[in-house]
Write a structure and sequence with these properties.
The structure holds 2 protein chains of 2 kinds. Chain A is an all-alpha fold. Chain A folds into 2 domains: 93 residues, Rna Polymerase Sigma Factor, Chain: A, CATH 1.10.1740; 74 residues, Winged helix-like DNA-binding domain superfamily/Winged helix DNA-binding domain (Arc Repressor Mutant, subunit A, Orthogonal Bundle), CATH 1.10.10.10. In chain A, helix 6 packs across helix 8. Chain A is globular. The N and C termini of chain A lie far apart (38 Å). By secondary structure, chain B is mainly alpha-helical. Chain B has a domain of 71 residues. In chain B, helix 5 runs parallel beside helix 6. Classes of the chains: A mainly alpha, B mainly alpha. Chains A and B meet through helix 2, helix 3, helix 5, helix 6 and helix 8 of A and helix 1, helix 2, helix 3 and helix 5 of B.
Chain lengths: 181, 134
């Protein structure tokens, strides 16, 4: 259940006034979502370190946060930067092995679940290989459920451009998952 | 294995679930606040001119040789083609450059001139993007 933004705004204001507990509450509130964003973007065992780094950067540069925007989405864009920095330092491409996704087995349709699990793993691997802008737009829409206007605000682009990036992301994901690349 | 856009939208909310599972929000909160304490709290953002960021981006593209194709100095003349992506006509030249920049495919062969994206107008950018979509 997402928390209403005014509460985030109040916590941000308290942090700007020096209230460390407010910063901690914001982390607890959004860390899981930021972690899911990073993991979907291809971060592996370093997810928690990257989440920590993203929030640290966010609070250190809180003046860059635009009131009225989603704090969670803003931190996700910072997390994306942190992931890029990490990969650049490590000189590595994203590598997401297939087959490590576990899906709860409710016993309803084992075959269907196996197919679903395989597809999820393939999509996960393909998302990590997308160019950054396509990846971020795709995840903000498909994973986080944002509309194009919100994505545009978060990524400093227009809704039309976000729609085009999403189109390219979907096209490429389908090509990769279907074995065309 | 066939996958539709609807499949991708259905699976989207589940992406990253397993990778995020070990993350402990309380532990992250404690680590972040400890680092903030050590760093002395909130800091001011150093303003960086937008033009400087754009120049850096262009320099990266040019240094990577992504869009340098030949010897002539004239921007390529490209005809109009079918538009595959939705809403390309509505994008500004800057947004079209951003889309092109996000595509890590090699530039099309046969374009003459030491041409960068900045040499192209919106119509040419749109046509080029359509060509690169294949």
């Amino acid at each position: 259940m997402p928390h209403p933004e005014p509460e985030d705004a109040a916590l941000i204001a308290r942090w700007q006034g020096g209230d460390e507990a407010a910063a901690a509450e914001l982390v607890r509130r959004h860390a899981r979502a930021v972690a899911r964003f990073l993991a979907a973007a291809g971060a592996r065992e370093d997810v928690e370190d990257l989440v920590q780094e993203a929030f640290f950067r966010a609070f250190r540069h809180i003046a860059g946060y635009r009131a009225g925007a989603s704090f969670r989405t803003w931190v996700m864009t910072i997390a994306s930067n942190a992931l890029t920095d990490l990969r650049r330092r490590a000189g590595r491409r994203p590598a997401v092995p297939l087959g490590d996704h576990e899906v709860a087995d409710d016993g309803a349709d084992p075959h269907g679940e196996a197919v679903e699990r395989d597809l999820l793993a393939r999509v996960q691997a393909a998302v990590a290989l997308l160019p950054r802008m396509q990846r971020d737009v795709f995840l903000l829409r498909a994973q986080q459920g944002l509309d194009y206007d919100a994505i545009a605000r978060a990524l400093d682009t227009s809704a039309g451009a976000a729609r085009v990036h999403y189109h390219h992301a979907v096209k490429r994901l389908r090509r990769v998952v279907e074995g065309g690349e | 294995m066939r996958v539709s856009e609807r499949d991708l939208e259905r699976l989207g909310p589940r992406l990253g679930e397993d990778g995020a599972a070990p993350v402990d929000p309380d532990r992250v909160a404690a680590s972040v606040t400890a680092r903030l304490r050590s760093a002395g709290g909130a800091a001011r953002v150093r303003p960086v001119g937008r033009w400087l960021a754009m120049a850096a981006g262009l320099a990266l593209m040019v240094s990577a040789g992504w869009f340098t194709f030949g010897q002539e100095g004239t921007p390529p003349s490209v005809g109009s083609g079918p538009v595959l992506a939705p809403g390309l006509h509505d994008l500004s030249a800057g947004e079209l450059r951003q889309v092109l920049d996000s595509l890590d495919a090699p530039g099309p062969s046969g374009l003459a001139g030491q041409v960068t994206l900045d040499d192209l107008d919106a119509e040419q950018l749109e046509t080029l993007l359509t060509m690169m979509e294949g």
